[in-house]
Amino acid sequence: MIDAILSLGEQYDSATAELRYFGVITDISEGKRMEDELTESREKFRGLSEAAFEAIFISEQGRCLEQNQRAEQMFGYSAQEALGRPGTDWIAPADRELVIKNMMSGCELPYEVTALRKDGSTFPATIRGKGMHYKDRAVRVTSLSDITERKQAQDEILRERDFSRAALDSLPGLFYLIDQQGQFLRWNQNFETVSATTPPRFHACRHWTSLTPMSKHR
Q: Does residue 12 surpass a pLDDT of 50?
């Protein structure tokens, strides 16, 4: 069985005064197969993008062609509002030049930006883009992830580190902490001053005995 198109016609034969009918059958199996494969590919792409945790945009010449549901939830633009909108509308003004540069250069490496919601609020995000062909068009597919929680965790670690450092430096005496191999892990400012040793050298030293005699007795 094949997919085909049947074309019917008629022709008058003046010599015999007969009206003849004819038909032409055109095999369209290959074209139909390619069309089905393209439809299946589009549906797979749509299914994967809708299941993604990050926002996904398809753009052409810097303007949005499609976005997934997560993008709508994350930014507040409906599919109709997103269509034809410049991709930089989702980016805070301070980072738009960087995004445009990476789009034009075809950059495929991830990088961080400040994303801009429809209501004007912002959040830290990671962007990664890649060029591809979609619906017979050369487009750029961009994924954008909200990294607010990761940034908050990093800030908390930095705050705890700074607090711990300030607490150690407030001690009146010397303090240092080593692991089982004698590697310096922590120390306070008094210990650094008395030993006349810089942080890089502490990391290279093995316990107090590895410091120079002059440093130990200062």
A: yes
Contact (CB, 8 A) for 105 and 97: no
Contact between 176 and 208 under an 8 Å Cβ cutoff? The reply is: yes
Question: What confidence tier does 5 reach under pLDDT thresholds 50, 70, 90?
Answer: low
**C-alpha–C-alpha distance, residues 146 and 151, integer Å:** 10
Cβ atoms of 192 and 199 within 8 Å: the answer is: yes
The pLDDT assigned to 214 comes to 39
Look at the domain 52-146 and name its fold: Beta-Lactamase (3.30.450)
CA distances from residue 87 to 60, 62, 75 in whole angstroms, order as listed: 9, 6, 12
With a CB cutoff of 8 Å and minimum separation 6, the contacts of 53 are 70, 145
Phi, psi of 172 (to 5 degrees): -70, -25
H helix runs in the chain, sequence order? 29-51, 69-75, 79-82, 93-105, 148-169, 189-195, 199-204, 213-216
Asked whether the beta carbons of 122 and 115 are under 8 A apart, the reply is: yes
pTM of the complete model = 0.57
Coil, helix or strand for 168? helix
Sequence letter at residue 56:
I
Q: 145 with 111: CB under 8 angstroms?
A: no
* Domains of the chain, residue spans: 1-48, 52-146, 151-216
Look-up: residue for tokens 């961009």?
142
Of the CA atoms within 13 Å of residue 125, those in its CB half-sphere come to: 27
